[in-house]
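## tool: complex_structure
## caller: assistant
## args:
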Amino acid sequence: MTEIRTVAVVGAGTIGASWTALFLAHGLDVIAYDPSPEAEAKLRAFARRALPDVFRQASAPRDGQLGFSTSLEDAVSSADFVQENAPEREDVKTALIARIEAAAPSHAIIASSTTAFPHSIIAAGAKDPSRVIIAHPFNPPHLVPLVELVGTRPDAPAVLKAFEFYKGLGREPVILKREAIGHLANRLQAALMREALYCLEQGIADVEDIDRAVRYGPGLRWAFMGPFQTYHVAGGPGGIRHYFAHLGPSQVQRWNSLGRPDLDESLEQKAIAGVEAMLGQSTVEELEAERDRSLKAIIAALGSARM
Amino acid sequence: MTEIRTVAVVGAGTIGASWTALFLAHGLDVIAYDPSPEAEAKLRAFARRALPDVFRQASAPRDGQLGFSTSLEDAVSSADFVQENAPEREDVKTALIARIEAAAPSHAIIASSTTAFPHSIIAAGAKDPSRVIIAHPFNPPHLVPLVELVGTRPDAPAVLKAFEFYKGLGREPVILKREAIGHLANRLQAALMREALYCLEQGIADVEDIDRAVRYGPGLRWAFMGPFQTYHVAGGPGGIRHYFAHLGPSQVQRWNSLGRPDLDESLEQKAIAGVEAMLGQSTVEELEAERDRSLKAIIAALGSARM
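## result:
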């Protein structure tokens, strides 16, 4: 198995730049490709800024080197691993994956950051679909540890190698057993958001109170335990077995009362107005900076709480 | 408006004991009632242990005094505020609320911690339903700030007074505009858990990986921003307006792929086996202690990150 020393980052927007910072901080060399003329300067500025934020491996003796190419084929020609972050358009993605496959060394794994497409679409243009995987991060990937992996099979060599690769970067990879729309975490996010919009539509609460109900309530716990552990602890000494036996029926009753909102113009406007009322004059850029400060604080705090 | 100095805690189990610690730490006197013979000793031990964990008001000059009574009527007779935490049985709750109403001073607000019942059921036995409110906490209420409030109307005097009361205790009260099964946050939790069980049922991922996908991914963000702010930031510079315009259709497509699992014996067993595999030899008591350590660490970390 070839060691991964050089990563090609294809598409150097928000996600690509964050991946770049992560890779560099762990001593990997990165060659980035992006067709935009301003991309290189933006990428170098972002990587410099983000590098100190990455929780590093103790074993990385130095930051990696960052190269940039305006030729896709050049960028991937010496890569051991390719992280693709192009715009979420099916035709763009499939054509790009085919070009990467043709130009990259045969041992290189081709990983797509796609949110929107399942593996069968992403790999549709590849001669060898087993080389292509989905490695879907959460924004920003240099801070949020989850990476969802999907391949031709959960035990495909490319998937297993990618699992070890991301683990080595301090990430928390999860291998999906089969592909699904929205992969896994975005299905869970979509379920939460759908019910949030339903509660808004039904006049149970406004945007700000729905967000407060999450962040000051169950959201605080979700930062360190998922839904199964939450219900297990809610079951008391008998755990989730007791929960199902005694509270299962009330859970099913609650499920039956959940809704399917109609995402029409009126509901969208209500949500937009609520977000504007809640966030006042903050720009999204400011909110991103605040998000990153909070993420760093929580990750550092949980690191010590878990000891 | 009478100042709230004395709180009666009716039902001194897990939730009642945690409320008690919160009230005492903010200088309120508490008279607890519980019919169980061991309740008083357990309550005093818990309150002593939990008191240092409460993030206190600077203005509370001393801890409150803790009294205990085995008579409900005695316990509530001098209360300015009653926090009821009896078992979740409709007949028990409605009878108890009627007895509390008859014995408590006429100015006292009667707040039920109920998870399972909407306001119209909780207040069904009361002569004056507008005195009765739901004040639903998240476990443990001395650490998790959210308190969901429901009354006869969102602007009923008892609701508004309770809002100020809990705010003064460092809580984050949310007033529901109307009652709903599961109130608000448990509807959102139920939506997440339903999709988690669906992903388990469909073989997309196992229990441990579903929990990891939450805690290492979106869960880290939900500790400080709710779903609306999350989608706003995901929309980039154009915010949630841009999100709806460009990603709304893919969101609706994702919604259509979400599932309704059949919570039968087979799925329950799969979930139970998965939880047991994930949590190994940890007892629920140990997991609760770990939960509380993590909650304290996150709350402290966000306090400084938000400055």
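## assistant note: Chain A touches chain B through 108 residues (CB under 8 Å). Residues 71 and 135 of chain A are 23 Å apart (CA to CA). Handing back to user.
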